[in-house]
């Protein structure tokens, strides 16, 4: 349950792929108001990589300015094909 | 006469809206010559991206740059410009009172990595563009299959339309051979044999005068245009008698042919050029644009979501 004043957090799943190392923690929460750039930075630090290609739902690599909540809405609202943001990293 | 001037000013407005005139200054920290180089003057497509202009900008300043590796970025009044935002959007966003030309500064050193994500030139812009397209496809369809299924060459061609001002066009040509007074009098299209489909990209040449719909049609259907180019004087010579032949107002058309004498030279009827064939109608998204409309306006406003400009043309051919 969230208090009314808290920022809604979005759950992001990381699906390891190829030679990308598996994170200890494959699920993490990020505030909806954060930009996708933060997700990329977070993964870059966790995976100790300088360059990362991060795809959402195996479909596209979002613009770094995109808000996580907007992405979440795009991925879940229109076609109900997804329950959340799942990331694939190359 | 005043109406003609008004319409010409309207056309000019469309030209401004199609591209942004840029005056690009080299940042003073990188000027090593005296006197400093003049700014580069470039007409940037609204739908394009600033890094794509580098091949035009770099030669202009290369002799003044300090030695070292170039990391190019742009800035407006101290604000580094995000390179993945289309030029037109940047201008609209950052210039509340439109500045013409738009004075921006180019840097070849000191990339602000804390503000801007890295850009390795054309490849980075292409990557960003394709992913935006995929995202658009995802939004519309729930998946990116249509973009993913584009062949490599199709993707490249789409990309080059942004780079070079090459526009994907689907042209549907309906040929008729009969004379008519009203559109209603024409016989119905009863077979797809009567419609030719042409898939031919159009290149917008940025140099020189404005590239109009007329120019585009000339490149798509050269056989319907005589060698003699259509000059304004020729258009003006369409006399009132010809104006009488203009079909009566089509209820679905948004253009009322009131002042027949005045509008005659602007009406589609006036684009009879070759003695053997005439273009009777050009329709894009239900609109019948005037021939002198800047083609870039059509591209910027009338593209389909598939990123193609679909143009319907009716031509009258001799029996």
Let me know the CATH homologous superfamily of chain A: Phosphatidylinositol 3-kinase Catalytic Subunit, Chain A, domain 1
In the CATH hierarchy, the architecture of the largest domain in chain B is Roll
* Structural Rg of chain A: 13 Å
**How many individual β-strands of chain A?**
4
How helical, in percent, are the residues of chain A?
10-25%
Beta-strand percentage of chain B?
15-25%
Largest interface: A-B, 14 and 14 residues
Q: State the name of the first-level CATH class of chain A.
A: Alpha Beta
- Discrete helix count of chain B: 11
Class from helix and strand fractions of chain A: alpha+beta
Please tell me the overall pLDDT of chain B.
73
- Output the CATH class name of the largest domain in chain B: Alpha Beta
CATH topology of chain A: Ubiquitin-like (UB roll)
Biggest sheet architecture of chain A: 4 strands, mixed
Describe the structure.
The complex is a heterodimer of chains A (90) and B (319). With 90 residues, chain A is of the alpha+beta class. Chain A starts with 8 loop residues before the first strand and ends with a strand. Chain A is 23% helix and 22% strand. Chain A has a single domain (9-89), classed as Phosphatidylinositol 3-kinase Catalytic Subunit, Chain A, domain 1 (Ubiquitin-like (UB roll)), CATH 3.10.20.90. In chain A, strands 2-1-4-3 form a four-stranded mixed sheet. Chain B folds into three domains: 13-119, Ubiquitin-like (UB roll) (Roll), CATH 3.10.20.620; 129-164, no CATH class; 167-225 and 268-318, Phosphatidylinositol 3-kinase Catalytic Subunit, Chain A, domain 1 (Ubiquitin-like (UB roll), Roll), CATH 3.10.20.90. Mean pLDDT of chain B is 73; it is low at 228-274. In chain B, a hairpin with a 2-residue loop joins strand 3 (73-76) and strand 4 (79-80). Chain B is built from eleven helices and eleven strands. Chain B is 31% helix and 18% strand. Chain B is an alpha+beta fold.
């Amino acid at each position: 349950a969230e208090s009314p004043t808290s920022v809604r957090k979005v759950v992001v799943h990381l699906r390891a792929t190829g030679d990308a190392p598996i994170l200890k923690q494959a699920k993490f929460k990020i505030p909806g108001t954060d930009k996708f750039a933060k997700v990329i930075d977070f993964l870059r630090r966790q995976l100790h990589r300088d360059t990362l290609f991060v795809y959402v739902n195996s479909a596209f690599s979002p613009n770094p300015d995109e808000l996580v909540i907007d992405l979440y809405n795009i991925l879940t609202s229109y076609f109900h094909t997804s329950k959340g943001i799942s990331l694939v990293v190359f | 006469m005043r109406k003609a001037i008004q319409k010409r000013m309207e056309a000019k407005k469309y030209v401004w809206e199609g591209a942004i005139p840029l005056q690009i200054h080299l940042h003073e920290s990188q000027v090593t010559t005296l006197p400093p180089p003049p700014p580069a003057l470039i007409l940037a497509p609204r739908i394009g991206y600033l890094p794509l202009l580098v091949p035009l900008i770099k030669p202009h300043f290369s002799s003044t740059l300090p030695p070292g590796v170039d990391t190019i970025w742009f800035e407006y009044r101290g604000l580094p410009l995000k390179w993945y935002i289309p030029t037109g959007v940047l201008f609209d966003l950052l210039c509340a009172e439109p500045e013409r030309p738009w004075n921006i500064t180019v840097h070849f050193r000191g990339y602000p990595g804390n503000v801007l994500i890295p850009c390795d030139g054309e490849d980075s812009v292409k990557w960003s563009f394709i992913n935006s397209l995929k995202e658009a496809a995802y939004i519309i369809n729930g998946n990116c299959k249509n973009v993913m299924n584009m062949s490599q060459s199709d993707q490249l061609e789409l990309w080059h339309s942004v780079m070079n001002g090459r526009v994907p066009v689907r042209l549907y040509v309906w040929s008729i051979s009969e004379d008519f007074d009203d559109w209603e009098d024409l016989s119905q299209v009863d077979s797809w044999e009567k419609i030719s489909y042409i898939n031919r990209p159009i290149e917008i040449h940025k140099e020189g005068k404005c590239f109009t719909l007329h120019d585009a049609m000339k490149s798509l259907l050269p056989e319907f245009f005589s060698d003699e180019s259509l000059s304004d004087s020729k258009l003006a010579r369409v006399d009132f008698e010809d104006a009488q032949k203009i079909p009566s107002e089509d209820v679905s058309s948004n253009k009322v042919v009131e002042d027949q004498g005045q509008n005659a030279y602007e009406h589609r009827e006036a684009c009879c050029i070759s003695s053997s064939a005439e273009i009777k109608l050009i329709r894009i998204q239900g609109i019948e644009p005037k021939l002198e409309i800047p083609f870039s306006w059509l591209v910027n406003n009338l593209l389909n979501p598939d990123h193609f400009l679909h143009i319907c043309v009716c031509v009258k051919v001799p029996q």
